[in-house]
Amino acid sequence: MRRDSRLSRMLHVLLHMARHDGPMTxxxxxxxxxxxxxxxxxxxxxxxxxGYVRSEKGHGGGWxxxxxxxxxxxxxxxxxxxxxxxxxxxxxxxxxxxxxxxLVNEALEDALREAEALLIARFGAVSLGELxxxxxxxxAGPLASSP
Amino acid sequence: MRRDSRLSRMLHVLLHMARHDGPMTxxxxxxxxxxxxxxxxxxxxxxxxxGYVRSEKGHGGGWxxxxxxxxxxxxxxxxxxxxxxxxxxxxxxxxxxxxxxxLVNEALEDALREAEALLIARFGAVSLGELxxxxxxxxAGPLASSP
DNA sequence: AATCATGTAACATTAGATGTATCATGAATG
DNA sequence: CATTCATGATACATCTAATGTTACATGATT
Lengths: 147, 147
What we know:
Two copies of one chain form a homodimer. By secondary structure, the first copy, chain A, is mostly helical. The first copy, chain A, contains seven helices and two strands, in the order αααββαααα. Chain A has a single domain (6-145), classed as Winged helix-like DNA-binding domain superfamily/Winged helix DNA-binding domain (Arc Repressor Mutant, subunit A). Chain A has a two-stranded antiparallel sheet. In chain A, strand 1 (53-56) and strand 2 (62-65) form a beta hairpin. In chain A, helix 2 (26-33) crosses helix 3 (37-49) and helix 4 crosses helix 5. Chain A is elongated, with a radius of gyration of 19 Å. Chains A, B: This is Rrf2 family transcriptional regulator. Chains A, B: It comes from Sphingomonas gei. Chains A, B: InterPro entries: Tscrpt_reg_Rrf2, WH-like_DNA-bd_sf, WH_DNA-bd_sf.
């Protein structure tokens, strides 16, 4: 399988939406993400179900933020797109009676659990609002930080 | 893509080999792993190239350890099987001029790098010898630990 | 009514691990 | 030396989940 880029893409979109007046169409977002409007709708459906964005049909329709960026963490977005597997490595599912296999799998899963906890904690600690303000500070230049 | 289980499988095999007299055939190993001898040869080729195991053809041939388990870390095995991607999430490869996209990707990659460093450190800190002794202590029962 | 935009379903594509079949090569055995 | 056993290597099939694509239905605006 390819590397899952839904979290990355949705963060990208949400930050743009916050800097954009009025709704954005799936087509415009697809162009931004270099993909297809159907992929956009499919992925953003999760964000809508979670209440982070709204979608409207018809003229002047499209996608708009439904809450403050400070109320959304990276973890929220990760979960809203389906909370996919974080790791590409692991062990076979099947039940086993082999004690060596069990020991090995437990050792690996311990390490993976720890790394996952770290990632989840980091994702949960950062809000999209902080990311957006980081953007202003990092990229908008000295004018933006003058008093 | 499926979850990569080569590390798990090779650890399983190496620990068995240490508890086994004489070489083990790809067929026997494949049965142990519930897979196919060709898959075994393909995966173990990396371990052989790294010098952790030896393979012999013909009657009485098969696979045997080529060094002490204490000289092999989980990280060594991970690298010997190709050092595959650890994470199933990430971002699109393509170059971009969008500063928002760059900021988002850097934020995610920072977190992933940190988690990867944790995993690599843990894998590097555990030798197969320690794992094997952990097995004896955990599963072999009180008889094994008597003086 | 026409247009615009999302919602949805169905199917194609892609990438990488894994599974499988086949034959070549070399070692041990009689 | 022929047979058997085992690895080495190649080619191709399968599986899985994300992603890409086509087509059409639904609802809102003009």
